[in-house]
Amino acid sequence: MKIRESDRLQQMSEYYFSHKLREVRDLIRQGKRIINLGIGNPDLPPPPVVIQTLQQSADGVDNHGYQPYQGIPELREAMAEWYFQTYHVALNGRNEILPLMGSKEGIVHISLAFLNKGDEVLVPDPGYLTYRSAAQLAGAKIVPYPLREEKGWLPDLEELTSLVTQQTRLIWINYPHMPTGSVATLEIFSSLVEFAAKHHLLLCHDNPYSLILNPSTPISIFNVPQAYDCCLELNSLSKTFNMAGWRVGMVVGQTTFLKSILKVKSNMDSGMFLPIQHAAIQALKVSRDWFLQQNQEYETRRTLVHQFLDRLNCQYQPQTAGLFVWGKLPGGMDSRDMTDWLLSEYGIFVAPGDIFGEQGKGYIRVSLCAPKEQIAESVQRVENVKARMFDDKKLYKKQLT
Ligand SMILES: Cc1ncc(COP(=O)(O)O)c(C=O)c1O
After folding, report:
1. Fold of 7-45+288-400
2. Pairing state of beta strands 202-206 and 231-236?
3. Which of 108, 219, 274, 392 is deepest in the core (most CB within 10 A)?
4. With a 6 A CB cut-off, is 178 part of the ligand 1 pocket?
5. 100 CA to centre of ligand 1 in angstroms
6. What is the mean pLDDT of each run of 10 residues along the chain (401 residues)?
7. Nearest Cα residue to 227 out of 154, 297, 309, 171
8. From ligand 1's centre to the CA of 39, what distance in Å?
9. Ligand 1 center to residue 1 CA distance, Å?
């Protein structure tokens, strides 16, 4: 019997990391010592109080049932307070915050809530892959807008304007930007909000990296007063508090927008496990010292990643935000060839830049989510890489032919 896949899946493929990590696990099973610098999965623990709270709350016999679709009021209040402390944005915890089970899921909810078949969505290139796949799931058309190194990986408003059509409904932005680590300013946010308002677009800002190695004061799109009319912002506890596996995020914005998202979300999940909500409240209350310590650790790791990239003859910006360093490969080398070569020859997994879009060709993304000893070992492993790199025909086949 032949069972057909749905039409909406025809243009989609399995998430790159879903199949690549299977390959990495196979190599590990064969006894290879692989160092994974490919993904942004924090290896550091959450604050201790968070784990204690989860354990205590899980002991409560009454804490195991379904939970409210909008999260418990105490969680929404804690998120509102955190937004105020972090960005000086005052939100009403009653109706301007919707807790989510991860911001990745939120991207899908927003896409299903606001996009129709044939609508167009502006997505950053390079950018997080889920903006594209969520739009495709909703039947919408992806319109990548290029971000370029020479413009600091920031959108060019003239170019953006030229991409707007009658069908354009939504634009995704994400600063600090993944994968490049570039940071936006309030002026840039203001001009993007103005652009969205002018063209009647919903502007969605994805903001999970603002507290990681950010050389500037963290900002929210809601620091722009006019943002309330046309913007949503996603945030996440995954990277900020090392809670990626817990699946806690939030979407904030005006009540009418959140009501539409809730129509999708309440039909898809049945609320977040109560002990996770109790623990998340404690995470949102941790002191600034906790971030300082965490950023010191990431800074040490980043210095080592810079050494790793130096050995590969890659160029990079030294002061980027977030969990990755974005390296430009020498001499127009191909991202996939390089990452496959590093994995097979040196047992080091990094992400090829082209998975994030056309503009990522010729780049690699190196994660800071590995103990410094492992990053130091990667630096050692590639000690004599340059000599081999320029000899290896697999890498330089394009130039040689
Ligand atoms: C830019 C960006 N947005 C969203 C996410 C998803 O995070 P979450 O764990 O909250 O789903 C990621 C995760 O890697 C990311 O890099």
Report:
1. Aspartate Aminotransferase, domain 1 (3.90.1150)
2. parallel
3. 219
4. yes
5. 12
6. 87 84 92 95 97 98 96 98 98 98 97 97 97 95 97 97 98 98 98 98 98 96 97 98 98 98 96 98 95 96 98 95 97 91 95 96 97 97 80 59 39
7. 171
8. 11
9. 38
Q: What is the DSSP letter of 178?
A: T
Say if ligand 1 is within 6 A of residue 128 CB.
yes
Q: 131 with 187: CB under 8 angstroms?
A: no
Counting from 1 in the atom list of ligand 1, the atom nearest the Cα of 40 is: 14
Query: Which residue is associated with the tokens 């109080």?
Result: 49
Question: CATH code for 48-283?
Answer: 3.40.640.10
DSSP code of residue 139? T
How far is the centre of ligand 1, averaged over its atoms, from the C-alpha of 241 (Å)? 13
Q: For ligand 1, is residue 103 a contact (CB within 6 Å)?
A: yes
Alpha helices in 98-222 (DSSP H): 103-114, 129-137, 157-163, 186-198
Which of 21, 104, 367 to mutate for ligand 1's pocket (most ligand atoms within 8 Å of CB)?
104
Distance 123 CA to ligand 1 centre (A): 15
Taking the C-alpha atoms of residue 397 and residue 256, their distance in angstroms, rounded to an integer, is 55
Q: What are the start and end residues of each CATH 3.40.640.10 domain in the chain?
A: 48-283
The token pair that represents 347 in the structure block = 């047992």
Residue 70 tokens, joined: 């909008």
Give me the half-sphere count of Cα atoms (radius 13 Å) on the Cβ side of residue 162: 7
User: What is d(CA 33, CA 380) in angstroms, rounded to the nearest whole number?
Assistant: 14
Residue pair 353/335 in contact (Cβ under 8 Å)? The answer is: yes
Cβ atoms of residues 352 and 393 within 8 Å: no
pTM above 0.85, yes or no: yes
